[in-house]
UniProtKB/TrEMBL annotation:
Keywords: Coiled coil, Cytoplasm, Elongation factor, GTP-binding, Nucleotide-binding, Protein biosynthesis
One GO CC term, this protein: cytoplasm
Coiled-coil stretches noted in the UniProt entry, renumbered to this chain: 402-429
Cellular location(s): Cytoplasm
Keyword Protease in record: no
NCBIfam families, per the entry: selB, small_GTP
Entry keyword Protein biosynthesis: yes
PROSITE patterns: G_TR_1 (PS00301), G_TR_2 (PS51722)
Lineage per the UniProt record: Bacteria, Bacillati, Bacillota, Clostridia, Eubacteriales
An annotated GO BP: selenocysteine incorporation
Name listed for the protein in its UniProt record: Selenocysteine-specific elongation factor
Sample GO molecular function, one term: GTPase activity
Organism per entry: Garciella nitratireducens DSM 15102
Function field: Translation factor necessary for the incorporation of selenocysteine into proteins. It probably replaces EF-Tu for the insertion of selenocysteine directed by the UGA codon. SelB binds GTP and GDP.
Length: 635
């Protein structure tokens, strides 16, 4: 059955809370101060059953201008609004501000409730209704019914209930397939149960026993129990008011404005790319880097507005902006937000999130505006392609792409398969994850890699190729090891590069020694072969050669080719000597459990210096393991 949230809106003392009591029989003012002053200061919550059998949750918001931020924390997730206007006062400042907020948040359905109708004459009621129609023109409730009520005398209450019931049939069905998301509007402690949070579940479904995460702090918590409308449930669904009993966390670690959601489903950020519009009646314009108050979900955040396409945003205008926040927040693309002036605190506009985790934008860049326009249109295939074009160099998994774009997994899968067939992206499967790359990025790194290797071969003609680690850092932006490996294999298949054990070269590249270099190579190999387990000191030996620079070039090539094994900066063994030393040690361990330096020295017939250097190298390679003054085979 469809889950419905109804919210009130309207000026202070226009009878919102009294109306809810008439509808439900329940009191929503819960604070001592609220009861004493007779006004709602914070949010109130209750529910009631409609004639059709549907159970609707109700959010009662405060009407006083001082408590607009509390009102904003309650209107997220509302399906139907009851705009309450007192017949004896008509449209008042907070009526208009609440209406503006609801319009900016794109609430779809509403009913206008003319309260206290028993206190005025019919002629006055008709005048007020005319004023109301004028006030709501060009808003989402311009054609909404006006229901006259008296909550005290129970006039019109039944008619209102029937209108609400009928309107619920038109409410768009919620999506329970997305990862769950619950902006928190209350947090408290119940003795014997611990920490409880409440909010409207705006996406997905949540189950008892689920592991969840609090954002933006990214603290992991467990869902102990759930309540919906004062009843324990095993599972709650989008569109329901939910109370969640959490384990492993204290009340003081949670605040209104935090979000409870699936683990790793959201990305904390201090920037949001948005399209915003200023109200026509806004008393202020927005200049670049204007400090404002931003309301998203149940949170209030301070931030600055960076105008991307103009110097000043005037009342009635809309534009693309980057919001630079002063504290971390979480959002998803197409989330709505409200903007209030920093001081005085008045609502001046609102907008929609286009990129929930953007990079820092430069102003007046056509490509930036085009990207945001594309996101605004909401074509998920084009949005995915544009996202990959911009962020392929961040090596994001499918899960991270979903988190950043807000596109559902089903849509993502369908779109990336189409794009792969069209040869516009590549998909790499690594372990149990998929990584997506725009073909432009692949072409770019391919060209950069070829240029880099071409220059490398010219500079170091005696080296087989550049090291894989060097390529990973300089060309692949320090990509994670397995991703770098798969990307390089993909590029190798294109036929322009060759991958060796530790190096990468251009396809077809071979090292060619000149006649003089061949002579030098023979001298080096002979000297280090003869040295066996007592090889020459590199620095001393090279300095003793007449053309030491040429000798050093060939020497480095021998290391690259694996002919010489680097043990330390000064000690190098010929590969045959190194392998022989390793075999001798292996044979020794077949008959002995351990070996010390002196024994190993005598085994090779070398000096203590070389014995220690070799053993330490074997330790590094995990062939041996040092235990105090002895070595054992590392099994």
């Amino acid at each position: 059955m469809q889950n419905i949230i109804i919210g009130t809106a309207g000026h202070i003392d226009h009878g919102k809370t009294t109306l809810i009591k008439a509808l439900t029989g329940k009191e929503t003012d819960r604070l001592k101060e609220e009861k004493e002053r007779g006004i709602s200061i914070d949010l109130g919550f209750t529910y009631f059953d409609l004639p059709s059998g549907r159970r609707a949750g109700i959010v009662d918001v405060p009407g006083h201008e001082k408590f607009i931020k509390n009102m904003l924390a309650g209107v997220g997730g509302i399906d139907i609004v009851l705009l309450v206007i007192a017949a004896d006062e008509g449209v008042m400042p907070q009526t208009q501000e609440h209406l503006n907020i609801l319009n900016l948040l794109e609430v779809k359905k509403g009913i206008i409730v003319l309260s206290k109708c028993d206190m005025v004459e019919e002629e006055w009621l008709q005048m007020v209704e005319e004023d109301v129609r004028e006030a709501v023109s060009n808003t989402f409730i311009e054609n909404a019914p006006i229901i006259r009520v008296s909550s005290i005398k129970n006039i019109g209450i039944q008619e209102l209930i029937e209108k609400i019931d009928k309107l619920t049939l038109q409410v768009e069905k919620k999506d329970n397939t997305k990862p769950f998301r619950l902006p928190i509007d209350r947090v408290f402690t119940i003795k014997g149960f611990g920490t409880v949070i409440t909010g409207t579940l705006i996406e997905g479904s949540i189950k008892e026993g689920d592991m969840a995460m609090l954002y933006p702090s990214e603290q992991e918590v467990k869902v102990r129990t759930l309540q919906v409308h004062d009843e324990n449930v095993k599972q709650a669904y989008a569109g329901q008011r939910v109370a969640v009993n959490l384990s492993n966390i204290k009340k003081e670690q949670i605040s209104r404005g935090d979000v409870l959601a699936c683990k790793n489903s959201l990305q904390p950020t201090m920037m949001l790319d948005c399209k915003i519009q200023l109200l026509k009646e806004s008393p202020f314009s927005i200049r670049n880097r204007e400090r404002v108050r931003i309301y998203i979900g149940t949170s209030e955040i301070l931030g600055r507005v960076v105008l991307l396409d103009r110097e000043e945003l005037l009342p009635g205008q809309e534009g693309y902006v980057q919001l630079r926040l002063e504290t971390n927040s979480v959002a998803k693309p197409m989330d709505h937000l409200i903007i209030r002036f920093y001081s005085p605190m008045v609502t001046i506009g609102g907008g929609v999130v286009l990129d929930a985790y953007p990079q820092k934008r430069k102003r007046f860049k056509d490509e930036v505006i085009q990207q945001l326009q594309l996101r605004e249109k909401g074509d998920t295939k084009k949005v995915l392609l544009q996202f990959l074009k911009e962020y392929s160099n961040q090596y994001l998994s499918l899960n991270e792409i979903q988190k950043r774009t807000g596109i559902s997994y089903q849509e993502l899968e369908k779109n990336y398969e189409n794009l792969q067939e069209e040869n516009r992206i590549i998909v790499l499967s690594i372990s149990d994850k998929k990584y997506l790359f725009h073909m432009n990025y692949i072409k770019d790194i391919d060209e950069k890699l070829q240029a880099y290797l071409n220059k490398f071969h010219q500079t170091y003609p005696l080296k087989k190729g550049a090291s894989k680690e060097e390529i990973r850092n300089k060309i692949l932006n320090a990509a994670p090891g397995k991703i770098a490996e798969q990307l390089l294999k993909f590029l190798e298949k294109k036929g322009k590069i060759s991958i060796h054990q530790e190096t990468i070269s251009l396809r077809g590249f071979t090292v060619e020694l000149s006649r003089e270099q061949k002579q030098i190579a023979n001298v080096i190999e002979k000297s280090f072969k003869q040295g066996k387990f007592n090889p020459p000191n590199k620095k001393v030996w090279l300095n003793n050669q007449e053309n030491s620079k040429e000798y050093e070039q060939v020497f480095e090539a021998f290391i690259d080719w694996g002919i010489l094994v680097k043990i330390t900066e000064e000690i190098y063994f010929h590969k045959d000597s190194y392998e022989l030393a390793k075999r001798k040690l292996q044979n020794y361990f077949q008959e002995h459990k351990e070996i010390d330096v002196a024994t190993f020295r005598d085994l090779l017939g070398t000096s203590r210096k070389y014995a220690i250097a070799l053993l330490e190298y074997f330790d590094q390679k995990k062939f041996t393991k040092r235990i105090r003054d002895i070595r054992v085979l590392n099994e």
